[in-house]
Amino acid sequence: MLKLSGSKLQLDGFKCEKGMVATQEIDLSPFQGQTVRVYLDNNLKLVVNPMYDCYWHLCEMELPHPQADTIIDEESGEEIRFEPKPLDLDKIDIRHFDLPKEA
User: Fold this and answer.
1) What is residue 37's predicted lDDT score, i.e. its pLDDT?
2) What 3-state DSSP class applies to 46?
3) Is the pLDDT of residue 16 over 80?
4) Is residue 103 part of a domain?
5) How many Å apart are CA 103 and CA 96, to the nearest integer?
6) What is the domain extent for residue 9?
7) Could you count the other beta carbons within 10 Å of the beta carbon of residue 36?
8) Over the stretch 32-55, which tens digit does the pLDDT of each residue have?
9) What is the torsion angle, in degrees rounded to the nearest 10, for the CA atoms of residue 57, residue 61, residue 65 and residue 69?
10) pLDDT per residue over 55-77, tens digit each?
């Protein structure tokens, strides 16, 4: 039901007591370096770290801090930063939570 693809978490659609949950995905890149809790809200939409009551807690994970290639300029000794590396969800542990029995 939950799949990882690059930096995105994908949820397959399914039917539950609240109705039909659409297939959805959410990009987790903005949450790098944080504990991320993914919920299905009362409107059956994926939300990350909500500040309100939701229908179901789907999963949680610790995302790594953003990574970037860096080098040191030999003349000035200054650090030069390159493009950030994309978030790789293949190397993180995800704690899944079962859906309600009626799902």
Assistant:
1) 96
2) strand
3) yes
4) no
5) 15
6) 2-96
7) 20
8) 999 999 999 999 999 999 999 999
9) -120
10) 999 999 999 988 887 777 778 87
What Å distances lie between residue 3 and 13, 53, 63, CA to CA?
12, 24, 16
Residue 85 lies in a domain: yes
Residue recorded with tokens 């949820």: 11
User: Please, is 19 exposed, middle or buried when counting C-beta atoms within 10 Å of its C-beta (0-12, 13-18, 19+)?
Assistant: exposed
Residue ranges of alpha helices (H) inside the chain are: none
Is a pLDDT exceeding 60 seen at residue 95? yes
Structure tokens at 21: 């949950």
Report the half-sphere exposure of 65 (CA within 13 A, side-chain side). 1
Number of domains within the chain: 1
* CB-CB neighbours of 28 under 10 Å: 21
